[in-house]
Amino acid sequence: MITIGIDPDMIASGLAVVEAKGILKLQSVKLPDLISTIQAVGKPGEVVIKLENPEANKGLFASRANKNKGVSIAIAMSVGKCQATAHHVQELLIAAGYTVKMVTPLKGPLKRQAKDDAAYFNKVTGWTGRSNQDQRDAALIALWG
User: Fold this and answer.
1) Domains of the chain listed by start with CATH number
2) Closest by Cα among 111, 94, 72, 33 to 121
């Protein structure tokens, strides 16, 4: 079975195609191209889609908030954009006939290091190509979400 992991983003979502724990493809996909990109991988029922659910993250609490109010507001706005994008991606995929598993964002040192460090990501996943943070996050969702 092929698994598609998606890390939703307002500009271009990270997308990973995984089969048998091996990454076949990593790419960034704009919202208008998302459905056709997924349809090229497989029809509904042929693929498992795991979509990161940013709404599962806890809020930005005052005790953990950045001391700079402007930075805190920017972070909150960015999170809100990702939440809205995830909602739209889920709606589009369901309308196209796909079943979508909403996945709680991964946590812990593996996630942080693999998302931020391409060499480490390649080491733990076996991927040898280029990647960005959103693509790496999508792969982590597909593999372990």
Assistant:
1) 2-144 (3.30.420.140)
2) 111
